[in-house]
Amino acid sequence: MQKERKISLQAQHHQLSRTSKQLAVLEEINQQSFTDRLEKIDRFPLKPTAIDIFQVNMGKMCNQVCKHCHVDAGPDRKEIMTRETMQWCLDALDRSNISTVDLTGGAPEMNPDFRWFVEELSGRGKQVIVRCNLTIILANKKYHDLPEFFRKHKVEVVSSLPHFSARRTDAQRGEGVFEKSIQALQMLNKVGYGQPDSDLKLNLVYNPSGAFLPPDQLGLESEFKRKLRDGFNIEFNELYAITNLPISRFLDYLVVSGNYEDYMQKLVDAFNPTAADGVMCRNTISVGWDGYLYDCDFNQMLDLKLNGGSPDHIKDFDAEVLSKREIILNNHCYGCTAGAGSSCGGTVVNE
After folding, report:
1. Contact by Cβ (8 Å): 148, 191
2. What's the whole-model pTM score?
3. Which of 108, 138, 279, 287 has the fewest CB atoms found within 10 Å of its own CB?
4. Beta carbons within 10 angstroms of residue 49's beta carbon
């Protein structure tokens, strides 16, 4: 099983590497569809409130192959954003008042033009967020100076750390990941990240390791801070508890383990109308590695492009038109509206 996880679903020619198959599985629920659920509470169609966050997937290449990954990222994935597409992103930002750019992947740092892009964004005064898996910092000598590079450009670092124990982290992300993650966090702390008197933000991301919803975010954050401070002298700012959506490798896990129906029932039962009001697709636009536009990162991985009539490629970006679009929905959206809700910034409502 461990050997199989070292390559992506795509490399395995797995049926769930096809988005059409994933969508077919998502249709196989006995409960009310997500769209019908929103119609019942008079929230359909769902529309943006604004476009505040410009999230860019810089490629699916990654140095890890995590079992919950909704991107199906890994070393064997060759999809990578070109500098030309990055320039189109910069041109789009120049035509808008969007202030926050969220860089993700894969491991975005593996894109050969990553640093150039960050420098260009920083030079434009954008708030840059990088979603870092931590181990990339230690993966190769050419990445060892990333903490200093991040500090220079005041990049906000959002780091993946499934748990404060080696056993649970390595079970989700691979053997030895916890130890390397701790070293990388200490390197980030050393240059000022996460320190009480610093404006360099270091946030952690928690994903459940099984077919269950995340616990209370604030309580979990307190426990993480205590354990990491006492055990490793590590400081960080906030912890984001993010629900695993039934997409790609996590969907495969649910199906293989026989947990799919039960997990979907948990999401449906935990549906929160208030969370539906605050879902991230309402203030975010997602840019694929190839420049196509999506309502969110999850829709991107299911190849659910923007609603017909909206500009669907970064070359044609029009913030005013896009802010009036109808958001594309499917049953995976239950994951963002369960309990306290879930977004790339953690929960969306206070429990």
Report:
1. yes
2. 0.96
3. 138
4. 10
